[in-house]
Amino acid sequence: EPDVTIVSGLKDMAVFEGDDVTFRCQVSHENARDVEWKLQDVALQNNEMNEISVEEGKVHTLTLRKVTEQDIGTVAFRVGCHTSTA
Prior knowledge:
Shape: elongated
Oligomer: single chain
CATH class: Mainly Beta
Largest sheet: 4 strands, antiparallel
Helix content: under 10%
InterPro entries: Ig-like_dom, Ig-like_dom_sf, Ig-like_fold, Ig_I-set, Obscurin/Obscurin-like_Reg
Subcellular location: Cytoplasm
Protein name: OBSCN protein
Keywords: Cytoplasm, Disulfide bond, Phosphoprotein
Number of helices: 0
Pfam families: I-set
Strand order of the largest sheet: 1-2-6-5
Number of domains: 1
Distance between the termini: 28 Å
CATH architecture: Sandwich
C-alpha cells in the first residue's frame, strides 16, 4: 500500500462564536486509512457537532458546528505518520 502524504495542509481559521468552521486537508491517495482528526489533542468522532467527511476521495474535511469559546485551540489532521495543524 503506498505511503499517503499530505498534499495541502490545514489553514488557520478565525470565526465568530455560534458559526460553523470547516477545515480541509488534501492527501496524495484516495481511500486513505489510518486518518484522525483532533481538537486540543482530543480525537473527534463524526456526530451532530463534528461533521467528518471525504470529498473527491482525497480531500478530508472537518466541520465544527456552532463553535464556542471552548473550541479555541489546535486542530490536527493525521494520516499515517504525517500531521497538519491549524
